[in-house]
Amino acid sequence: MCGIVGYVGDQQALEVVLDGLRRLEYRGYDSAGVSVLGADGLQVERKAGKLANLEKVLSGRDLPGTLGIGHTRWATHGPPTDANAHPHVDCTGKVAVVHNGTIENFELLVAGLQDRGHERRSDTDTEVVAHLVEERYDGDLPATVRSICKDLEGSFVLVISHADEPGLIVAARRNLPLVIGLGDGENFVGSDVTAFIAHTREARAVEQDQVVEVRREGVTVTDLEGAVVEGESYHVDWDTDAAEKGGYEFFMDKEIAEQPEAVRATLGGRLTEGEGLLHLDELSMSVEDVRDIEQVVIIACGSSYHSGLVGKYAIERWCRLPVQVEMASEFRYRDPVVGRRTLVIAISQSGETADTLEALRHARSQRAWVLAVTNTVGSTVSRESDAVLYTRAGPEVAVASTKAVIAQLAAMYVVGLYLAQVRGTRDADEVRAHMQDLQEVPALIEELLTRMEPVRELARSLVDAERVLFLGRHVGFPMALEGALKLKELAYVSAEGFPAGEIKHGPIALIEPGTPVVIIAPRHALQAKLINNIQEVRARGARTIVIATDGDESVTPYADHVILIPDVKSLLAPLLTIVPMQVLSAELARARGLDVDQPRNLAKSVTVE
Ligand code: F6R
């Protein structure tokens, strides 16, 4: 997600902050900005695009001052423009705010601020904080920030300066990481230690709902009531490369670990307060248009296609609408039957995949409605669609997709519930209950991630495997396809996914003594049938690796290895079953000495057909 740096000390802040932002570039961003507080008051510069654009604008300017904050923005609310770049300022030009995360109740707050005469100058959720500081400030910035944090919903790291307190930066966090850098006569805050590693290696982590006062002479941390919280500092001995990866060996390891947050961000703020109604980010379709839809066609490629297949199960179950899922590369060449009453859902994490783009253009030429599900605000897919649901997983560096895919899965459930709500196939209480089930999933993923060591060990034992098969039924089938794709991409092992019921119609011939077969078998109505399938492959000598639900003993007699996942409603199980398969593939690639982040022959964004 976004990168944040804050500095107070003796050095000229601009250089320190820009250097920190350069080191945070790996996080991915689409605009950047800085503010410096000095003798001339608060000075702010922001620019869309790469840091080089900002540096170009700054090259002819002097921004003297020893306190500064900086930000690289990954767009979530509003496209990546100069006006939406951070820092955001209040109406008086005294307050500067940078922010990472999503303020879920910002629309309500904006409405109040506008009623009270504040002028809104960006599309962002962040700007509300600058105006709230302006309104509530009474000479005590930390107290003002504590009071505002109590009124914010969602996730945030906020870093704020006020021209009336020129030696002070105040930062706060909820659900996202913030680290303090402790220097000698200078102090820092950052999204991670890379922001200040060139200046100090003494760091302290900020905990949930804490507010930090950063001054040249020292740092004070309080809770939201203002009580001082003592904490331990630690020494960072990572090199810069390891620091960028948060100490993980590969970006993919970090991105797998970030999945609870990715799902949380995707689900966050979808229910309108009071009414309990789901909403999408951008929608140019009327409720009547949504009600008139007669069929849904999902177009996507690769892992996004697998998310689409899961979406089909959810939409058909909740909305009783026929859903087809089509590989985007095939869609337009078969003269598909789509028209005004077709909703085409284009899923693309990058939002730039040529096949998906061409397919959506074809769908629009047939007058179909297009809903984009993408991770990239302002991408071509989002711009050319009638409605957009952003997955908000944050930028993904590893070429093969993990956290962006899990966020797409979460998004497809949201789309299913949205359609069910508008078309009246599920009542508001049921929609809310399903959203609640979904909202419990991030904590389950967190727990599941703590149990991955046996999966890594298993992966290492597969280092010489030549072929691995993946089987699943119902929503387990798309996950079998995804498990196989990840293994091919990362470990270059020949892998195929099948519906478990298909195995005896041909693929079972592939099984030899010792062939690893991963069977996705969380608790489900079809489980007895899956157990039969496990027995069928085991009888032919397969080494069975079964993904099952905690406490389910029924699969153990037939499994050479059991991977347990927390219990969850069976339709939502892909959000959990996908995790051990990602870990298995990444670890097997590592064991084979491969580059997990950059597999051969693959590109992150496939912009050619
Ligand atoms: C798999 C992977 C690819 C993408 C596919 C579509 O790990 O990353 O299969 O899912 O290239 O890309 P997007 O979603 O950007 O359209």
Describe this structure in words.
- The chain is of the alpha/beta class.
- The protein folds into 3 domains: 3-242, 4-Layer Sandwich (Glutamine Phosphoribosylpyrophosphate, subunit 1, domain 1), CATH 3.60.20.10; 245-439, Rossmann fold, CATH 3.40.50.10490; 450-591, 3-Layer(aba) Sandwich (Rossmann fold), CATH 3.40.50.10490.
- The chain is 35% helix and 22% strand.
- It has 19 helices and 25 strands.
- The strands form 4 sheets. Strands 3-2-4-1-10-9-11-14 form an 8-stranded antiparallel sheet, covered by helices on one side. A 6-stranded antiparallel sheet has the order 5-6-7-8-12-13. Strands 15-20-19-18-16-17 form a 6-stranded mixed sheet, with helices on both faces.
- Strand 7 (154-162) and strand 8 (169-174) form a beta hairpin.
- The longest helix has 22 residues, at 428-449.
- The chain is globular.
- The mean pLDDT is 94.
- Bound molecules: fructose -6-phosphate.
- Fructose -6-phosphate (F6R) binds at residues 301-304, 348-350, 353, 356, 400-401, 485, 489, 606.
